[in-house]
């Protein structure tokens, strides 16, 4: 695929290298020529100086042949405008915009522009490390209503079936991490010692799920 990236910061340059290593052609746009110093010397993609929401600039980057457009500059407005130009003017279906303001992310998601709300995501990752107990979000949708969370089941659920956990906690098990590998369980899959349980749930339901699992652990103790 040909992929156009707006923003040659740490994220943009890292994406460019990864995509090129995977065999894709890449064009990267940045308003500052100095930003391209982040690219390795052997980078074969195109470097275009300018603004990603300028039609002539993204046309020079090959947007008409692009399968995807990524906007990861430091400005929310620039990212979303560029993504909309790529989608609405040039017909690129696969667009992603990085947004720092989670409130904006929700609005743009409803407009059909997939977003990554970095502030919310970063805060969630830090909380998972500061407060490892219970279900802390690994991912949440842009509205913040639905989350993927890691659930601390302790030893009380070892030997029990996934169906029993779902029924007791009133939640849905998305997958298990077992010995470093992900496993999509069946209802009769038995939870083993060392398994990490990941659930999909409403954000406002996590406290209840935690309490239900903790109560079972307390009873067994």
TrEMBL record:
Pfam families: TrkA_C, TrkA_N. Residues 1-118 form the RCK N-terminal domain. Coiled coil: none annotated. InterPro entries: K_uptake_TrkA (IPR006036), NAD(P)-bd_dom_sf (IPR036291), RCK_C (IPR006037), RCK_C_sf (IPR036721), RCK_N (IPR003148), Trk_Ktr_HKT_K-transport (IPR050721). Gene3D superfamilies: NAD(P)-binding Rossmann-like Domain, Regulator of K+ conductance, C-terminal domain. Residues 133-215 form the RCK C-terminal domain. Keywords: Ion channel, Ion transport, NAD, Potassium, Potassium transport, Transport. One of its GO terms (biological process) is monoatomic ion transmembrane transport. This is Trk system potassium uptake protein TrkA.
């Amino acid at each position: 695929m040909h992929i156009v990236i707006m923003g040659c910061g740490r994220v943009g340059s890292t994406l460019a290298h990864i995509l090129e290593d995977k065999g894709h052609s890449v064009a990267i746009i940045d308003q500052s020529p100095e930003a391209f110093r982040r690219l390795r010397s052997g980078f074969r993609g195109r470097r275009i100086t300018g603004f990603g929401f300028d039609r002539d600039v993204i046309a020079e980057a090959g947007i008409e042949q692009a399968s995807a457009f990524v906007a990861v500059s430091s400005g929310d407005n620039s990212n979303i405008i560029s993504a909309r130009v790529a989608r609405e003017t040039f017909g690129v279906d696969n667009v992603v915009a990085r947004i720092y303001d989670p409130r904006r992310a929700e609005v743009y998601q409803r407009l059909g522009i997939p977003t990554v709300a970095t502030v919310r995501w970063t805060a969630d990752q830090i909380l998972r490390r500061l407060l490892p107990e219970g279900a802390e979000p690994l991912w949440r949708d842009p509205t913040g209503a639905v989350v993927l969370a890691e659930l601390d089941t302790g030893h009380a659920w070892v030997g029990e079936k996934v169906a029993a956990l779902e029924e007791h906690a009133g939640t849905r098990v998305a997958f298990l991490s077992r010995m470093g590998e992900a496993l999509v369980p069946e209802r009769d899959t038995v939870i083993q010692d060392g398994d990490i349980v990941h659930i999909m749930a409403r954000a406002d339901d996590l406290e209840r799920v935690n309490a239900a699992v903790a109560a079972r652990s307390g009873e067994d103790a």
